[in-house]
Structure formats: C-alpha cells, structure tokens
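tool=predict chain=A
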Amino acid sequence: MTELVFAGRRLLARASQSRKQKGVFEGYASVFGAIDASGDQVLPGAFSASLARRGVANIRMLFQHDPAQPIGTWLNIRQDKKGLYVRGRLSMAVQRSIELESLLREGAIDGLSIGFKTIRARRDAKTGIRQLVTVDLWEISLVTFPMLTSARVATLKTQNALVSQTPATL
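tool=predict ok
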C-alpha cells in the first residue's frame, strides 16, 4: 500500500516535471560577425555590460517585439564564440505561448530577434556596415522574419521529445 502511494507521488512529480519542460527552446538570438538585413553587425562582447547589469531576469521575452505580448521567460542568456545563445521557456498559461509552441513544433516560426539600444557603434569605412560594439539589450523576441537570418530557434522541448529545428548543433 505504501509503495502504491509512493509510486503515485513519483508519477505526479514526473508529470509535473514534464509540463514544466514543455515549451523550452534554445537557439541563437544574435550571431557575431553576421550582417543583418539593415546592415548591422554585432561584434563579440557587445552584450557583456548589458547582461552584467540587467541579468537574465530583466531581459524580456516578447512576440514580434510587441511589449503587450510577453510570452515567457529566459532561463539562460550568454555570449559564446558564436554569438548570443538563449534558452527560454514559453509560459504555457498564456494562450499566445500555447499557439507559438505549436508553431515552433511544426517549423512555421523559428526566428529570434533582439531589441536593444545602441550604446557604441562604428561604421566600417570600406563597407559602410555599422558595427555594434556595445548595446543595451532590452528584449529578445520570437519573430516570423528575423533581420538576421541566422538568428533562429534550434531546438524545442515538447512534452515527451526534443524537436530539432535546424541541423546545426548548439
């Protein structure tokens, strides 16, 4: 009898853990050195001061950069050699997030885009490209069409599986 109750509790704990993992995704919100559609290029270290000052909890997750549509929270935001790696969780209590989880799973949406204020930039004299040296990162959005085509969700955790959106590994 005790074993059945214990087993029931373990099953409930597993179900709760599975629900908590649903809607978790990761990818790159920015790729260092890549040039976006507006001619901007983020340089390595551009987010350092902002991340140190704000921390993960104060970077918002929005849909299409709309401040009226918060859709989840960031679990991890860090710079590595490739760019700005992000891992976040959609809030499955929000209708829009439920829809987005489905669209991510189906591959209908997978773009990531950064919302920021430029603190320091320089223009490359030869190419005219604006190089972002330091930015104040406010938010990262799931978007339909990212300005930087390589800023994408790479994986999504669903209830029972990990769905890879791109062949690249993180």
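Residues 1-19 have pLDDT under 50 and may be disordered. The beta strands are 24-31, 40-42, 60-63, 66-79, 83-90, 111-123, 130-143, 153-157, 162-164.
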